[in-house]
Each structure stands twice: as structure tokens, then as C-alpha cells.
Amino acid sequence: MALLFIGEVEKLTGIKAHVLRYWETVLPFMKPQKDLQGRRTYTQRDIDLIFRIKYLTEEKNMPLEAAGEQLLNELSSKGGSSESVRVSQMRDELVKIYKTVQDTQDKIK
């Protein structure tokens, strides 16, 4: 995946740009690179982290700081690979989809 600007990341993740900028002030590992014009550029790893933080804060109702600590623990215990974060995020998304399907099936019955 190519580098994405903050507006593109906002559309992709559903996280508002001002929230992403706030996360940078609270979470030390959320520091996207900036291009020559000073625009934030996000890599696939950055996006994986954003989705994971989104899951922890919205689905698990964790405060942002606690979600950051959780993510740091996950990264350090798994060697910090973006692949492990991506797999974890995909698993969490699948669980969310499964629950949505179950809820829909319950409403149909």
C-alpha cells in the first residue's frame, strides 16, 4: 500500500483527522512521517495500529492510554511485527462481524 495522507486515513478508518492528531500527542508510537510540505503520511503499519486502537477504544471500551499500553505490550510480546498486529486486528474485526451476523439472525427469528 502506498503512503496515505490524513484525509485518506480518515475515510478509510472512520477516525476523524483531529482525533488522529490527538492520538499523536497521547501515544508515543503514533508518529506518522511527514512529507516535505509537512503533511502526515501513513504507512500500512500506521493504519494497522489505528485500526487496533480503534477496536480497543470503541469495542473494548478502553481509555486511550490503556489501549496504547495494551498495544505496546502486544507489540513487544510479538516481536513488534506489523504482521502480528494485522492478524490481531483482522481477528478482532471477524469477531465483530460474527457478532453482527448473530444479532441479525436473532432479529429475523
From TrEMBL:
Pfam families: MerR_1
Protein name: MerR family transcriptional regulator
SMART domains assigned to the protein according to its UniProt record, in alphabetical order: HTH_MERR
Classification via InterPro entries: DNA-bd_dom_put_sf (IPR009061), MerR-type_HTH_dom (IPR000551)
GO BP term, pick one: regulation of DNA-templated transcription
PROSITE patterns registered for this protein in UniProt: HTH_MERR_2
Gene Ontology molecular function: any one: DNA binding
Domain HTH merR-type: 3-73
